[in-house]
Amino acid sequence: MSKYFGTDGFRGEANKNLTVDHAFKVGRFLGWYYSQDKEKCKIVIGKDTRRSSYMFEYALAAGITASGADAYLLHVTTTPSVAYVTKTDEFDCGIMISASHNPYYDNGIKVMNCRGEKLDDETISKIEEYIDGDPNSIPLATGEKIGRTVDYSAGRNRYIGFLISLATRSFKNMKVALDCSNGSASAIAKSVFDALGAETHVINNTPDGTNINDGCGSTHPEALQKFVTEEKCDIGFAYDGDADRCFAVDENGRLINGDLILYICGKYLKNKGQLEKNTVVTTIMSNIGLYKAFDSEEISYEKTSVGDKYVYENMSANGYKLGGEESGHIIFGKYASTGDGILTSLMIMEVVLESKMSLAKLAEPVTIFPQLLKNVRVTDKNDTMNDADVLASVKKVEEALGNNGRILVRGSGTEPLVRVMVEAESDEICAKYVDEVIAVIKSKGYAV
Fold first, then answer.
1. How far apart are CA 75 and CA 62, in angstroms?
2. Running along the chain, 448 residues long, what does each successive block of 10 average in pLDDT?
3. Cα–Cα distance between 327 and 285 in angstroms, integer?
4. Would residue 393 show up in a list of annotated catalytic residues for this protein?
């Protein structure tokens, strides 16, 4: 595991374990690394609405230009827009400053290659070596070789135009509610839906630097559910802080999560003959109800580790065009290299309008099984998960559940925790089997 970078960039609390010094060094390395073998390299930077995002933007730009590269600033924008602009405008590298769905005091640095994909592990290792190494190992640019910063808000506008171009139908007479999470979507989403003719109603689109994800957006969709029902909207969409996730809300106020979105869009694409290899890529956290619904529709599926990075890698390696997570990271490979919340909402609108069916009706065939997940703090994750008695208890649960549920035991990627999750036909069954496995973990002395 990397020291600083996880599956979704360099994350931490601003100026505690992610500092301006870290950001400057990341910029210094990237500016130098991508300037080799070329006269001048270009790196594009976007940010979300956190107060610290401005600080990190300036630190990254300073590092990039100090190494002789040019920094192009998209300003407040979404993660998928940075990926789009990086690829289409032929940048050497793209950077998004965001901690996604985390609280405002956290932040992150997401780095993308020239194709708008998450950076490879080898390059990440080199960045980390530089962060911990000699800062003078990379030369400073001097004179006319010093880089410059360029206002590039036009790139964000082109991305908005790209989204609008994807719609094949007018949204006229559709009453749509958007929850922008006081984040990046505040700068983009309403413009897109207005341009397509929707009667657009927006909540949580007044960012102040500290209210991003605060009781709103895809991590707290209750406000949108309430708004949709009270205002009698046809549909609603909730984004996270950097708008790479999307949850939908149907006309009855029911939450339509990532699993349901994958079903709705997967079935639609299959019926149109556009579901590549008749396969949808999911993660191991997708609900068993989704797989039963896919089986009924004779749609194949893959399961990856948790993280949209792994979903995209599987899609890219096998030529699949639809994949995502229950959390709302949905990747439409025909159009994007990352999860894109606003794009996802447009694709859902496409299905609703073409099928002439409500979102509630489209999601009706899927029965989401109750799920219970409990975390156990342990002395050693690997020892716990490889213990013979723990493995035997998990196998016993698997046999008891059969085809009517599942158990998943996995270690946290960042904490000394073992996560025990059971899906079954009732909450009572879930609780029974989760507690059985945790009791064995405790009896063996692993629990802290």
1. 15
2. 80 95 97 88 98 98 97 97 97 96 95 94 94 93 96 96 96 97 96 98 97 96 98 98 97 97 98 97 94 96 92 96 96 95 98 97 95 94 94 96 92 83 95 96 94
3. 9
4. no
CB atoms within 10 A of CB 41: 23
Chain centroid to CA 110? 11
Given a contact cutoff of 8 angstroms between Cβ atoms, the answer to whether 233 and 206 are in contact is no
How far apart CA 214 and CA 103 sit, in angstroms, is: 7
Cβ neighbors of 236 (< 8 A, separation 6 or more) are: 176, 177, 178, 179, 224, 225, 227, 228, 248, 249
Specify whether the CB–CB gap between 112 and 312 falls below 8 A: no
List the catalytic residue out of 100, 181, 218, 327.
100
- Reported residue count of the chain is 448
Report the candidate in 289, 290, 336, 318 with the shortest Cα–Cα distance to residue 84. Answer: 336
| Among 179, 154, 184, CA closest to 248 | 179
Residue type at 241?
A: G
Backbone angles phi, psi at 132, to 5 degrees: -90, -5
Find, among 11, 353, 43, 84, the residue nearest to 244 by Cα. 84
Q: Radius of gyration of the chain from Cα atoms?
A: 23
Q: Which of 121, 124, 118, 108 is nearest to 52 (CA)?
A: 108
Q: What is the pLDDT of residues 16-42, one digit of tens each?
A: 999 999 999 999 999 999 998 787 899
For β-strands 330-332 and 322-324, DSSP reports them as antiparallel
